[in-house]
Write a structure and sequence with these properties.
The protein has a single domain, classed as Amino acid/polyamine transporter I (Up-down Bundle), CATH 1.20.1740.10. Helix 7 crosses helix 8, helix 7 packs across helix 10 and helix 8 packs antiparallel against helix 9. Strand 1 and strand 2 form a beta hairpin. Helix content is 78%, strand content 1%. Strands 1-2 form a two-stranded antiparallel ribbon. The protein is mainly alpha-helical.
């Protein structure tokens, strides 16, 4: 089988889905282009700020992408490339894209509040509390994992660290240029991209940030505290927009390279139901994660993106479209692993720096097909992933802050502010990062992340039921995600306790308990909506 064939199938499927299924979603929720979004009605200069569609697409895509759609498919290829490919395409279209779309539109129609608040309104106050606790714990795990991964990437390669640092300075300059000097977006974009590639050139030719992993961990902890409380226009929005161009170039380079090289898939299409990472069900779906669906996406959509949505009509592009783009990235990432033999894959993981290294080397091979030196392509791939690691890191911190603020707003308003919320989230996540147990945290992060997706779809289902609309489009994906991730979490409980890891085993149990409360109340709410609908129809 040729990788080009798989990629073309995926792109065609995603293009049709965007036009057809995206239109179904728009009609179902009755998109209103004249409705004023919270970005306009609640503008505060910090979190609520209207963003043009290309800028918001860049922010959202950069925030949700991270290393997930790259590391996940590469890790899951042990089951064979065929089941991975099927889930990436089917999951992105019917589960992940739907999940992200509803995370954005429901939040935008509820003052930019989080998925937890949506669940609180349509399921119940107790469910809201359980969900926010669950989401906050999941985000703490995200902060822990991505702090370690980013620190490791920066410590391993001073070029990556140098270019990443310079990108932050460029992004802040872009923010001031657009929002304080009123320079047009096209001008700022062109200048920003030129400076971005100049920063990469400096990183490659004259790196100056040579620090060890522990030092970078502490620097990142301080950084995410500052980044979480700064206004979005100052760093988050322009940095994500700028970073998105790296990913666009990587996507284009990978696609063109595959078109030219047409690499053959040599990894087995299917291996076995049980592998080194566990059974195909549920571990395939937990491992691929962001490449097909991710609960983190709904937290981004309802946390930062909905507060910047300029017009409801942008929901399909930003919410649904971003997930489909991520699906393309996941297919390319899968291809970088599937062009290797089993032995070559094992060697690559060991000698190239894990899944990130496998992707970077694969991208280097693809780009070499149209004249880019393979080593340059490898370095560019590493720089791209590192940029998104830090993007996901500080976005997760801000989202954790939002969850904490919403949790404490009524009961303890004195600590419901961005400073306390940020500190509590960073202390918990940074503390876990400093334990050095990130490899044990990763599978738990994957399972909890996917369960957040199931619970978010539960909120979307309750919202549609409340409106009296058909909710099959969210109900069946929700059922699948909840069943699959609960099985995975139960497995992790036994795994962690079996290895004597009391802390992570206890967190796994806590996540299961919180999720069960939300699910129970969710189905109770759906039952009430059915009764109300039946009663009204009888009259």
């Amino acid at each position: 089988m040729n990788l080009l064939t798989l990629l073309i199938i995926a792109v065609i499927a995603f293009a049709i889905a965007y036009k057809v299924y995206g239109g179904v979603l728009d009609r179902l929720v009755e998109i209103d282009e004249k409705a004023k979004t919270p970005a306009h009605t609640m503008t505060d200069g910090v979190d609520y700020i209207p963003a043009k569609a290309p800028v918001l697409l860049g922010h959202h895509f950069a925030s949700i992408a991270g290393a997930g759609p790259i590391a996940g498919p590469i890790a899951a290829v042990v089951f064979g490339w065929f089941p991975c490919f099927l889930w990436i395409v089917i999951g992105s279209i019917f589960v992940g894209g739907v999940h992200d779309y509803f995370g954005l539109i429901t939040s935008a129609r509820h003052k930019g509040l989080s998925v937890g608040e949506i669940i609180g309104q349509y399921v119940g106050k107790n469910a809201r509390t359980w969900f926010l606790l669950f989401a906050w714990l999941a985000l703490v795990l995200v902060v822990a994992v991505f702090t370690v991964l980013t620190a490791s990437a920066f410590a391993a390669n001073a070029s990556v660290a140098t270019a990443g640092f310079l990108m932050l300075l460029i992004a802040m300059g872009m923010g001031f240029a657009m929002y304080r000097m009123n320079i047009s977006l096209p001008v700022v974009t062109v200048v920003g991209i030129i400076l971005l590639f100049f920063a990469i050139w400096i990183g490659l030719s004259a790196p100056f940030l040579f620090l060890d992993k522990l030092t970078w961990t502490w620097i990142l902890i301080v950084y995410i505290i500052v980044a979480s409380v700064l206004p979005v226009w100052m760093l988050l929005q322009p940095r994500d927009y700028l970073s998105s161009f790296l990913l666009y170039v990587a996507l284009a380079g990978g696609f063109i390279g595959i078109l030219v090289v047409r690499p053959t898939l040599v990894y087995p299409a299917y291996t076995s139901f049980k592998t080194s990472v566990g059974y195909l069900f549920p571990m395939l779906f937990v491992t691929i994660a962001c490449g097909a669906v991710s609960g983190f996406h709904s937290l981004v959509a309802s946390g930062t993106t909905s507060k910047q949505l300029d017009n409801e009509k942008d929901t399909r592009l930003v919410g649904y479209g971003s997930m489909l783009l991520e699906g393309v990235l996941a297919v390319i990432a899968l291809g970088t692993a599937a062009i290797l033999t089993k032995e070559g894959m094992a060697t690559g993981l060991a000698e190239w720096g894990g899944a990130v290294g496998v992707f970077a080397h694969g991208l280097g091979k693809f780009m070499a097909g149209f004249g880019i030196p393979e080593e340059t392509g490898i370095i560019f791939g590493s720089l791209t992933i590192s940029a998104f690691l830090i993007t996901s890191l500080d976005t997760a911190t801000r989202l954790g802050r939002y969850c904490f603020e919403e949790l404490t707003a009524e009961k303890v308003p004195s600590i419901s502010n961005r400073y306390v919320g940020t500190l509590v989230t960073v202390v918990a996540g940074g503390g876990l990062a400093l334990t050095g147990q990130w490899t044990a945290i990763w599978p738990m992060f994957g399972a909890s992340n996917q369960l957040v997706a199931g619970l978010s779809l539960l909120g979307a289902t309750a919202y549609l039921a409340h409106l009296g609309k058909s909710y099959k489009i969210t109900y069946y994906p929700m059922l699948f995600m909840i069943i699959m991730t609960v099985v995975a979490l139960i497995n992790l409980v036994f795994t962690n306790f079996g290895k004597g890891n009391i802390l992570l085993g206890s967190i796994s149990i806590l996540l299961l308990i919180l999720a069960s409360f939300v699910v129970y109340e969710g189905f109770q709410a759906l039952g009430r909506f059915k009764e109300i609908k039946a009663s009204s129809e009888a009259k």
